[in-house]
UniProtKB/TrEMBL annotation:
Highest taxon in the source lineage: Bacteria
Coiled coil: none
InterPro entries for the chain: DUF805, SHOCT
UniProt name for this protein: DUF805 domain-containing protein
Amino acid sequence: MIDQTTLKSIEDLHRLKNEGVITEEEFERSKEKLLFGSKPASQPRPAVNPFGVPPTALPAIEDHKGWIMLPLKRYADFTGRSTRREFWMFQLIYLALFVVGFLVIGGSADAYGETGALGSLMVGVMMLALLGLLVPLLAVEVRRFHDQDRSGWFVLLNLIPYVGVILVYGMMLVDGTRGDNRFGPDPKSS
């Protein structure tokens, strides 16, 4: 049912159209807005990847190697969302490399605290590997926070001594929001 105010507004719009003040298209758009209200708010647009990397399809659930390699395929992609499986599979390898590196450093020291040539080489290689994997580690953490509809800046919690990493790991256990959110579509639905 159209009330008097809406009818008067449509008549005024019609008069403006006939006088050439507004176009036919503007008249129709304004009339629809008056009759049916404004359009519902559109869904948030997913974040655009500035590196132009196309979204990577998720591997099969039993493809462990695929899940481990997925953050490397999305190396510096800080946009979009990631699943818990993607984070934890990559974190498992990162921590394993860290432990191996730590054991190599500890095992290569002799009684005088010096490392041999092979030990120094291994320490260097492990440090380079860990530094090279730091970017995808941070990227997958940011995407996990995005999956929970949180800002990626929460990754800075890692800088809090002693408890920061534990806080982040605890937050990584939380399931993401269902359906689309402001950071993109649900990674589980694709």
